[in-house]
Amino acid sequence: MRYLYNCYYLFYVHYLKGGLPKKLNTPKNEKKQAFLIVLYNLSIEESQSYKSVIENRDTNSLIIIYDNSTKRMVDDVPRNDFIYYHDARNKGLSTAYNYAVAICRDNNISLLTIFDQDTVVPKNFFEELRHAGPTDDISCIVPIVKLKNGNQVSPFSIERNLFVPSVKTISTTGAINSGVTLNLDAFSDNSTLFLSDFPLDFLDYDFFKRLSDSGRTIQELKIELIQNLSVSSYKSMTGKRFRNFVQSESRFVFKYYPQYVRRYRFKLILRLMKCVLQGIQFSKLHFIYTTLRRSRK
Predict the structure, then answer these.
(1) What is the mean pLDDT of residues 228-255?
(2) Residue 12's pLDDT is what?
(3) Among the listed residues 3, 81, 74, the one whose alpha carbon sits nearest the alpha carbon of residue 35
(4) Strand pairing of 62-67 and 156-157?
(5) What is the pLDDT of residues 190-222, one digit of tens each?
(6) Whole-number Å distance between alpha carbons of 90 and 201
(7) SS3 36
(8) Residue 169 banded pLDDT, cuts 50, 70, 90
(9) Domain coordinates of the chain in residue numbers?
(10) What residue ranges in the chain does DSSP mark as E strands?
């Protein structure tokens, strides 16, 4: 099924959407770099990550802009080192990421760095990334990502984020998608890297959980990026986004940690109490309670 899914992507971008750009001069013995930036209702000129990439990238690297906005955010599209694709359906991040992976594979590009539109990327990130030079046993490179208040959000322990800490709990390293560099040489050509089970929320959890389960290795980059996470505050999240987040979290737990469902329920109870104290909207409190009840079935 994954092989057929990947073939569909190549057919989709080649024939249904006007095709890929001309083949890049990318010798197989040299790792070439591409940068993916996913836009949503933000002009490219306002994107912090785009500004950083344009100013600091190598001249032979490729920029891929995947635009999920309701209207096109880019008009003038260079052809040599810049690919722009607009999809107003906004089918999620997994679609955007797989699109970029297909382009890289078709052009013998080994390294793909993913950015959200509002990630603040320091200049030395690009220099350190050049020096990192991952070997084929390294699946991806992850930087340190912090919020504007200084709190670190990536890398993180998947189990610690989901469950009340326990001495017996295993620890699986995860990272948010923005800032991650994929070493595509470490994956088979017909593998689908990002599954449609988690199109937006918990896509990063799912990716790194599967990496860990398959025994793959990640490399940490000691460079700090600044990220504005829409899920960092339950109170400021829209009701729809909050429901999607909690549903994705619950689905992830039941898929990968059925043995920890009771501990997950306890975490939901603590979250519900915390949200009550913080004065979170009643509709969100009710949804947590509903999720808690469903988890007992």
Answers:
(1) 87
(2) 44
(3) 81
(4) unpaired
(5) 899 999 999 999 999 999 999 999 999 999 999
(6) 14
(7) strand
(8) low
(9) 2-226, 239-294
(10) 33-39, 62-67, 82-86, 111-116, 138-146, 152-154, 156-157, 173-174, 181-183, 217-226
